[in-house]
Amino acid sequence: MSKNKNSYQRNFPVTWEQFHRDSRALAWRLLDTRKKWDRIIAVARGGLIPAAIIARELDIHYVDTVCISSYTLKHQGELSILKRVNEFKDRGDRYLIIDDLVDTGKTGKAVRDMIPGAYFATVYAKPDGRPMVDTFVAEVSQDTWVLFPWDSETTSNFVNPIKIQGTVVITQ
Hints:
The protein is 22% helix and 33% strand. By secondary structure, it is of the alpha/beta class. β2 (39-44), α2 and β3 form a beta-alpha-beta unit. α1 crosses α2.
């Protein structure tokens, strides 16, 4: 399914502080699994920051990346695998895949196909992508654009309330 700007009815802005808290919450969930991972595989680019936070919190020193591109701004297109995992052993049972968000599940499926035995965790998940991940921190609706802090500026501009006089305000 191709996403375009009109398919997003809501924005979910995430601050640096919130993203850090949510990434640490993901680390707690991962710790609770009592699994042992040898390495983290970050899905670049969005998974780089939570992977760094989780690597610190779980004391994992080996971090690698898979690089997959599918978005241009708010438009999702075809997947392009730019880089695979450098070293791959077994089925990847001791690998922990980290991403910021699972949306449609297309990227998640591509990573799962590369490393079938890995444990896959994301900070945020949408309903279409949820089956691809083992755990996540927060679910957002499919029609919501998650606005990550690296994609926005901090401003002191006036923000409209969600509801004004009985109508819902859609900001894009």
